[in-house]
Design goal:
The protein has 152 residues and is mainly beta. It has a single domain, classed as OB fold (Dihydrolipoamide Acetyltransferase, E2P) (Beta Barrel), CATH 2.40.50.180. The protein is built from two helices and ten strands. It has helices spanning 70-73, 142-151, and strands spanning 13-23, 26-31, 35-40, 54-60, 63-69, 86-92, 95-101, 103-113, 126-132, 135-140. The strands form two sheets. A five-stranded mixed β-sheet has the order 8-1-2-10-9. Strands 3-6-7-5-4 form a five-stranded mixed β-sheet. It is globular, with a radius of gyration of 17 Å. The relative contact order is 0.25.
């Protein structure tokens, strides 16, 4: 009789151009195609009663954009001051949404290990993990993260 030893499943890797950014001490990334534009941090109009991770509204060339604070949403300690940081503008369906980050650092083509993604309790906001210069990078699905925020 033949042995029925199990053969390990192949690791699922995807290769994609990834925008790298810092939120607090952690390095994150997202598919560069998810971001429409990167703009400097600017003053915002706060929304009364909005959750803490909804930072406020900005006007981008006549379009009102809701800005989310990724540090607050990801439970990270932000290192930015009021003048530092960037906003990633993300097209979510028919809306433009901003995501505040401490610093944008690079664009790299990464091999993303989707099997190594930490589970987010049904949220599915993590696409996978990768390594850049020996540092772990958590690759986010910004569209899923925004969808999760808009539904909460």
């Amino acid at each position: 009789m033949a042995s029925t030893a199990s053969i390990p499943e192949p690791v699922e890797l995807s290769i994609s151009p990834t925008l790298l950014f810092r939120v607090g001490e952690s390095l994150y990334g997202c598919d560069i195609r998810d971001t429409q534009e990167i703009i400097p941090l600017r003053s915002m109009t706060r929304l009364p009663g909005a959750p803490a991770y909804v930072r406020g509204l900005i006007n981008v060339r006549g379009v009102i954009v809701t800005v989310l604070d990724l540090a607050t949403r990801l439970n990270a300690v932000s290192s930015r001051t009021s003048e530092e940081g960037s906003i990633l503008l993300v097209r979510h369906r028919e809306r433009l949404v901003g995501a505040m980050v401490d610093a944008v650092s690079d664009v790299r083509v990464l091999e993303i290990d989707a099997d190594g993604a930490p589970s987010q309790g049904g949220g599915g906001v993590v696409r996978g993990v990768a390594t850049v210069d020996g540092a772990a990078v958590v690759v986010l699905d910004l569209d899923a993260l925004i969808q999760q925020v808009l539904l909460s």
